[in-house]
Amino acid sequence: MARSRPRLLALVALLLAAVGTAAYLYSQSWFSDDEVIEPAPCTVCGKTVRFKTRKGRRYAECSSCGAYERHRLMLHYISHREGLLDPGTSVLHFAPNAGIERYLRAREGLVYQTADLYTQADLELDLTAIAQPDASWDVVICYHVLEHVDDDRKAMSELFRILRPGGVAILQVPLEIGRNETDEDPSVTDPAERRRRFGQEDHVRFYGAADFEARLTAAGFEVEALDYIAQLGPEVVERHHLSREPTGDPAPDERIFVVTKPR
Ligand SMILES: [Zn+2]
Q1: Which site among 8, 57, 86, 239 is 20 to 30 Å from 185 CA-CA?
Q2: What is the CA radius of gyration of the chain?
């Protein structure tokens, strides 16, 4: 009896430690429902799904359609902006996300075409020499593309040219809050250096917000740098997980650039 008491004490201590560890992990929400289990509605595919963590960002990717936060935010915007996708409107979509493409193809009365230079699309188009007539499209969607294009000023002026007066382009590029200068250096070709400075090995620059806006203005556009996250407010943003979770990286700027060709 006397000999087993230390063992019993050790067992109790072990048990307490295990319970304590589990409680700690739960409090850190490693196992909590809201992180791993609770499904939420995806604005792109319309399904209520579990979102996957990507690069440390919780709720980053829809497990059904693969849409990321920025795709879900963009779809919320284009589907709620009055008049943007009315029947009869022509929409040219560069390098489309598959879920958004499905949504737009299913949208009644839309004249919708996809475009890409490298992968299968309706049209094979080079953004810096778009083989389309002047003033031929009502809406262009170009999301996370311009940061890959060497001559982005030419691309912006081509987008301007193919839009009808009053036409709108919906644009987004990676940005950081508080950073205004663009970091751009065509001599940087080393993949590791590009990842470090521009965020990805096939990016050719990291835009500053003010400079991105200035380049669009120089191309002739009226620019609205829309903070749609703030406009929607936390309730809607959290319900659909439309905002990137901070990961310790510099805070992302999720503005949507709505640029209009003046009439
Ligand atoms: Zn989805």
Answers
A1: 57
A2: 23
How far, in Å, CA of 211 to CA of 241, rounded? 29
- Quick one: which of 137, 138, 136, 115 has its CA closest to 127? 115
Specify the pTM. Answer: 0.83
Question: Which tens digit of pLDDT belongs to each residue from 76-96?
Answer: 999 999 999 999 999 999 999
Which protein residues have their CB within 5 A of the ion that is ligand 1? 42, 44-45, 62, 64-65, 67
Looking at the DSSP bridge assignments, the partners of residue 90 are 111
Which two three-digit tokens encode residue 168? Answer: 């709108």
Alpha carbon of 54 to those of 15, 59, 69, 75, 172: distances in Å?
Answer: 34, 8, 11, 20, 20
Bridge-partner residues for 49, per DSSP? Answer: 40
Tally of CB atoms within 10 A around 15: 10
Q: How far is the CA of 53 from the centre of ligand 1 (A)?
A: 14
Q: Ligand 1: distance of its center to the CA of 201 in Å?
A: 27
C-alpha 26/C-alpha 233 separation (Å) is 28
Report helix, strand or coil for 184.
Answer: strand
- pLDDT per residue as tens digits for the range 160-188: 999 999 999 999 999 887 888 999 988 89
